[in-house]
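User: Hi! I have a protein structure encoded as tokens and I'd like to know what sequence might fold into it. I'm fairly new to this, so please keep things simple.
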């Protein structure tokens, strides 16, 4: 089975805000991090560019978005050109960020890190953040440890190497050097009690495989509705000499 079928599916549907909580959660994260004007922000896994453009216009910051999928990058660049304050869009991997150390004040990653090798991506996040910088990540999380059969069922649909509990995620972030790590439920951030759904922009690229993946995703969400959830993780990189 092709590992990146789910990511290809998102690209074919040109899904905006393709993360749990949607745009409403993005707004809540921006408010929680108190992002400053003229700061440097990195959007890891920017997808169609919806969050990168929003950050550019709302925060009036210097925003860079990266994504590995060429179709996503193409759409993000097109969206950026239509923005008043165009973010910079680059095709790159979260596991090997093409930026100097201590480059960004903020890093946001919305439903991306779980699809990477965290032994590479998370240390890269830490490296490119400036001392005192903040990170927010929205990540797929399981509510309890699963047996191998159920883990494989989820991993095969989304093409991920592993699924993590909240405790496991906290260990991953802290092991990379982050401090003040918090795991938040969406209802602690969202003003509304329900999630805002992502926007699907149907394109001519929709094919039988995309519809098959969509059905698998819906079935997985139904079967594991009380197990497969998500968290918002916030954290900071320590100041120097601390």
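Assistant: Happy to help. Inverse folding works backwards from shape to sequence: for each of the 242 positions I chose a residue that suits the local structure. Here it is:
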């Amino acid at each position: 089975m092709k590992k990146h079928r789910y990511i290809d599916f998102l690209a074919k549907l040109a899904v905006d805000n393709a993360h749990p909580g949607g745009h409403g959660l993005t707004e809540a994260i921006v408010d929680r991090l108190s992002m400053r004007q003229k700061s440097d922000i990195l959007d890891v896994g920017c997808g169609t560019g919806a969050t990168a453009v929003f950050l550019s216009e709302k925060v009036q910051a210097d925003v860079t978005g990266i994504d590995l999928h060429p179709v996503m990058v193409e759409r993000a660049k097109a969206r950026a050109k239509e923005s008043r304050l165009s973010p910079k869009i680059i095709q790159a991997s979260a596991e090997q960020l093409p930026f100097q150390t201590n480059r960004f004040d903020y890093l946001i990653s919305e439903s991306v890190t779980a699809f990477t090798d965290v032994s590479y991506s998370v240390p890269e996040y830490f490296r490119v953040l400036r001392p005192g910088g903040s990170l927010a990540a929205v990540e797929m999380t399981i509510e309890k440890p699963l047996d191998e059969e159920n883990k494989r069922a989820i991993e095969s649909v989304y093409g991920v190497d592993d699924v993590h509990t909240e405790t496991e995620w906290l260990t991953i972030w802290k092991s990379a050097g982050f401090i003040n790590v918090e795991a938040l439920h969406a209802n602690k951030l969202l003003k509304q009690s329900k999630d805002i759904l992502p926007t699907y922009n149907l394109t001519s690229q929709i094919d039988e495989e995309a519809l098959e993946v969509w059905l698998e995703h819906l079935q997985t969400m139904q079967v594991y509705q009380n197990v497969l959830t998500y968290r918002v993780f916030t954290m900071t990189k320590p100041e120097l000499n601390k």
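A useful reference point when you look it over: DSSP finds eight helices and seven strands in the chain. Feel free to ask if any position seems puzzling.
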